[in-house]
Please model this.
Amino acid sequence: MSEKIIEIHIETDDVNESRRDFLKNVGIAGAATLVASPVSVEASADSANPDAETTVAELYQGHFVLMSDKDKKKAIERLEKRYTAKYGKNTTVSDAPPLEGVLFGYALDISKCIGCRRCVHACVQENNQSRDNPVIQWIQVMKIPKGNFSFSADKLNKGYPESSKVGDYGIQVGGNAYTPVGGLSTEEAQSYYSQDEMVPDKNYFYVPVQCQQCEKPPCVKACPVRATFRDPNGVVVIDYNWCIGCRMCQLACPYGARRFNWGEPNLPPEEMNPKTHYFGNRPRMRGVMEKCTFCVQRTREGRNPACLEACPVGARKFGNLLDPESDVRKILAAKKVFRFKEEMSTYPKFFYYIG
Amino acid sequence: MGKILSFAMDFGSHAIKGGPKYKAWLLFLLFFILVGSYTAYRQLTEGLILVGATDQIPMELFFGNFIFTAHVAAAAILVVAPGYFYHRKDIKELAVIGEIIAMCFVATGITFILFHMGRPDKLWHMLPGIGLPNFPNSMLVYDTIVLNVYLFLNFAGVSYILYKKYVGEFDTKALARWFTPVIYLAIVWGPLIHICTAFVLSSNARMGEWATAVLPFGFLAMAGASGPSLVILLFLLIRKNTKLQINDSVIDLMATIIGWSLGIIMLVFAAEYFTALYSNTEHAASLNYSMFGHNGLNMYTPWFWGTVGSIVCCFVAILIPKIRKSYDLWLPVVCVVVFLAILVEKPMMLVFPAFSPSPHGEYTEYHPTLIEFFNVLFTWAIGFITLTLMVKGAVGILTGEVKYHKPAASE
Amino acid sequence: MYKINSQSVPSTIIVILALCAVLAGGLALVGGLDIHKTKKSAAEEQAKTQGEQPVANCYESRAIYAAVTRVENAVPQYGYPNIKCSKTTGGVLWYGDPFDGTIPMGEMPEVNDGTHGDFANAVVRPREPHLTYFNMGPNGCVTCHNGKTVPFPKDKKPRLIAMHKDIVEDSIQLKHGRGAMWCLDCHSATNRNKLIDRQGNEISFNQPQRLCGTCHGEVYIDWRAGIHGKRIGTWATGGKKRWWVCTECHNPHTVQINRFNQIKPEPAPPPPRGMKNADYERVGHGVH
Model:
């Protein structure tokens, strides 16, 4: 089974030397867990309440980044044991470190996106979100009308001021095109368009929004306990165990990317994804924040995020911004690229482009 | 040690003594505390899913009420300041009651924040040393520091004055060397809890309606209106029911402060609304929503106009000398209206509508749940019962009813 | 010889033909996969031996023409199936194994335009299994278009055809090239299992990009560079990637109407708690 992982990650550039090493390690670790897990299942079945000691230990757990390697290992083992018992699957919780010489970037072609919401649900499949009460989805697709005005010669001089006395000087407000037109303005956006209508609708275009992985993330600045931070790959991640649930980051985020576990997450065991990462898709607890991590459990092992793989039109592109040959860099060089809500000066690494 | 113990005993026993009306009031509050204990337990065990907050409107009634308690708490300095800065004899005596109000309402505010937290068990992560406070960056850390320091300052002030008066050693001329700085610091610190709370809100560039420089000024003005309203009500009650002398001049001063504050509130509102509505850009979207609704959603509209209307009416009313001097009827009515208007303004005008449109252009109405409502009442009941007991005991000490009896007590 | 006015064909026949084609396409795909598959996952083999007959009920980008079958436990390490599909639309949402059922892309010509195609580890899902029109078996189109059962056309002149109406409704009104093109501009007249370019080179259905690229050069360059089109697998330059070829997303026979055919979207998120619906967002648009 470790072969399988290695096979996926055929590397060519020298940057990836170290990665290949740890990929091997991960593969071995995965295998080890698989062998060891029946034992742990038995052990947890023996004690009356398998969660009790874990809960106590987690209460005093420090910030993951600052923990010693030994403590990290213990914390990971705790989690694996708990998840394996809870979901009945041999769950691995990786703590694979950030990659060397990599800055992740994402590009999305809004001229191609058809608004099918497959990315939304792919993300839910991959990242173990709560399925119901609360429903948590990290991606939200906005449907924005194109400029369809009702043009008519009658409206040419209709507007404010209406009085005929000033008519000669022209109206100040009004006319044929006095209605909003999509653009990337959210003013007319619809996020709840029905699943019964066919997409794409010719009169609309579609803009999926998820965490933009800002280079100057307001959420990180607002967090009172540094539970969320920008990792060396440029991805903003959360230590779910360190989060105190104050939701200041949600207030600060101009992209509405953060989602809160208002209650105990409901994740059916059969839908649970057992391959997890500490900062990524491991099952969350009640009262903590979560958000898109560019699928940190996949991308740190070389694989593309789940939303990209689900997109039926190939509107999503992911890659290393430091590599001039990467898809994203080629798009930045060749296409008309812009960022969402640039005026917020957050400098996202999520780019929208017109292909 | 014995002195402190008997201080606590005497203070406590005097605080719960009272007529049937007083007892009924305490029982009334106890009822909400009892019901609230159950709802609070539910929320602690099941999480915030039981309140009406969503990812679209992540701040609940607790947050709005927290801001309001900060208003009232900060306003207590308006009782302390005239006494200590302007040496007004009539009010200096009452400074301790102002500090009690500050103390109780900061504590209430902190309780609201506990309800607001998703993981109250992890609050220690904010402590320096064992935790990891995001000190230079996060406004919430500043706010936490400022609130707790304010709580401590007022607690120190209140206990010092009351204890010294109890044992009969309080002398305004020979105050302890540390006490005067504490009192002055508390006066300066009052506005700080406001400014910091306002910055917690306005530091979020995403929240168009909050990203305004007048927010702290609006907050200060609202503190100046809501706090003294409560103070007037409290003083009128004390004057009527206890032997403590409170002059009309004190009440008039408070009424004047309310009048000025309401005027400033109106000016701040006008400045904000003009700036937003003249150009009517996307920054005015939330305001338009609360003023006129949006495509059939108009839950906030009556609250908006009701609040603005009451503030204007109260401003006009309090300018009329007849009403200002009507200590038995009209002045209390005006005070209650001001207090409630500003209480309602917080969630229904400031907090909830500001989240619409969301970053995705969604418009959402906030529907509080019953459990949320009872938890709010629970917190207020705790705040008011503490306030009642503290003020009752303090009045006993100020009037000399509660005193230290050396030989008789120890035998 | 099969000159029939399309106006006079009863619509029921078209419907029946279409239904047959859908059914046949699905069945043939199951059969076809067995023949053309180069990499069989162990789990799939296991499923076969246990007598489970997987049914293609999922699709990737194009309905019917990009159908795939879910195989349980394709990645035994995590108990992953090869794909997870949407319960409501059948769209493929999630890949347990991104390289499931793929073959190497094959040789790609060099282009001196500065785009260095990243083809070293490129794999594709073969398109030839989809050539099983009417379940003709391993020989595909040639079963009928062998010069005898159906004679080879003598020239490339456009003419009406009665067959394949589900693919091309009206061959004279082919929805590609705005009247300038006809079937035999892309399909080989003598070998229907192959495409043909303008120099007369036969091109495999697995590599339609080599034909499409001859006209759509700009898109082709973007596609080679990784800007246009879908690729899954690893993100690193030079890593193993599964490429989507032109016809996996675009229907070459109707591309003039829709670059991408309309599909049904996945379910919307529920409105925020406390909100009964999100009708407010539709007010004022005059639609729905």
